[in-house]
Structures are given as C-alpha cells and as structure tokens.
C-alpha cells in the first residue's frame, strides 16, 4: 500500500518528535546523575571541602573589587564545572579569583536540593521584613543544610566588612539568591541581603 505524501511527512515528523523526546530524557537523566548530593558529602565533612578551601583562599587574597560579579573566561570555567560535577572538587589555589567565585556559585546551583527549598522560600517571603522570624525559619532546616547555610552567610558577611571589595549585602544578595533559592523570584535578593546582615549573630 503506497503512502501519500502527507502520510510520509506526518510519519517523518513523528519520528523526529520521538527522537527529540528520547534525547531530552537522556539529557535529563545525565543532568540528574551529576547533581551534587549535599547530605552524602556531609556524612564525611560538615562543609564540603571545596567550599571550605575556596572561601579560605578568597579571604587570604588581596580584595578584588566587585568580587562575585565578574564572569571568568568560559574556556577556563566550563571544564572546571565538569570537575565539580564529577569530583565535587577543584583546587582553589590553582585558580584566579573570578574563577573561584564562579565555581562557588556553580557548586550551590548544582545541589540536588537547593539550600532554600520552595517551601522555605515561601516562608521567607512572608517574613521578609522581620529579621528575627527570618532567622527562626532557618532553624527548621535539616542539620547539614543549616550548617552550610550559616557557613555561606557568615562568609558573605565577612566580605561585606572589607570595604576594598566594594560589595555590600545587597550586591551579594543579588549575586547569590538565584543560586540558592529553589523557587527564585525577583525580590528574593532582599531576603538574602537581610540574612547576610544578621549572619554575624547566628
């Protein structure tokens, strides 16, 4: 039985659609496979070694104006992202400051579960104007996420105390909110700004 041109075309389009769907499923599985399991890492160490070493290295270096806002060269940054995905580690001592900063943000962005879950994001928005309640919301995080959240906030707070960086809590909130809020919305950087400001007393 001969097929009409319309039937042949429809079949070709269906095959193309099916092939695309399969490719998308494979890509999604590969992406899920490479996500970072923070709870698993924290069985060995409360704070991932890369994050510890990265912040230690940043604080030991001369202040770079606009830290965390400068994008590194893609040809250097992208291969290192693959190392983070595969080994959860890159030696910060071997990298330029802008590369370290970008990899810190990438690490948090690649967590299987963001530091701030969708449920927590909703609570934080309700308490946006109340620092006391914002801090209370964080207490309900499971231990590994609580420790890592406080560690991040305190390191960002430390950066704001050095005027040579020219990065205040507002600027750092803008840089980090999209990387740690699972359900990021415009305005969430204000929440992070407040949390960075009160981090010293947590």
Automatic annotation (TrEMBL):
Q: Name one Pfam family in it.
A: RhoGAP
Q: Provide a GO CC annotation, any one.
A: cytoplasm
**PROSITE patterns attached here?**
RHOGAP
Q: Which residue numbers delimit the Rho-GAP domain? A: 36-202
- Gene3D superfamilies to which the protein is assigned, alphabetical: Rho GTPase activation protein
Q: Which GO terms describe its molecular function?
A: GTPase activator activity
Name the InterPro entries for this protein.
Rho_GTPase_activation_prot (IPR008936), RhoGAP_dom (IPR000198)
Q: Give the matching PANTHER family.
A: RHO GTPASE-ACTIVATING PROTEIN 68F
Put simply, this protein is called: RhoGAP domain-containing protein
